Amino acid sequence: MSFRLLTPLALAVMLAACSAPNADGSEEVGVFDLAVGDCLIDDTSGEVSETVKIACDKPHLSEVYHLFDLPGGAFPERGAMDKAVEAGCLGAFEPYVGLDYDSSEYVFTTLEPTPESWTNGDQEVVCMLATQDGSKITGSLRNAKR
Fold first, then answer.
1. Which of 91, 93, 116, 123 has the most C-beta neighbours closer than 10 Å?
2. Would you kindly state where each structural domain of the chain is located, as residue ranges?
3. Which pLDDT score, from 0 to 100, does residue 117 have?
4. Which residues have C-beta within 8 Å of that of residue 146, sequence separation ≥ 6?
5. pTM surpassing 0.90?
6. Rounded-to-integer distance, Cα 34 and Cα 97, Å
């Protein structure tokens, strides 16, 4: 069996083809490739490894506003994870939205490591803003003050 090494240019062309935007401007991405400010049109409940992001000026369901890693060690028990996730996401809410959580019309949702992903080194929590009723948002919520 033989393998052919790809040149950097060939690899770049292949990667660009794999992550090309759809006709509506949306793009499928891995959850480990999310960044603060990404707006998502997928329902990210349950276990997901990929999602679809879109420009925030298009209708979307959530917006990534904070990413952080949980402390290393053994996979946290549910109560400990809930406390760490709440502290991390709530602490970043007001600086991003411009209004404290209790006064805001938005809620946060999360993507959290699973026991399986934890064993592969995933300790990242993704904090996302959404509406309470799951309705779509148009525009970024950065400094929305509502």
1. 93
2. 24-131
3. 94
4. 97, 99, 104, 105, 106
5. no
6. 18
Q: Which of 70, 78, 60, 46 is nearest to 129 (CA)?
A: 60
* pLDDT computed for residue 19 by the predictor: 53
CA nearest neighbour of 100 among 134, 144, 137: 144
Residue 143 to residue 128: CA distance in whole angstroms: 14
**What span, in angstroms and rounded, lies between the C-alpha atoms of 15 and 87?**
36
pLDDT at 21: 75
Below-70 pLDDT ranges, the chain: 1-20
Phi-psi region of 86 (alpha: psi -120 to 50; beta: other; left: phi over 0): alpha
Q: So what's the pLDDT on residue 93? A: 98
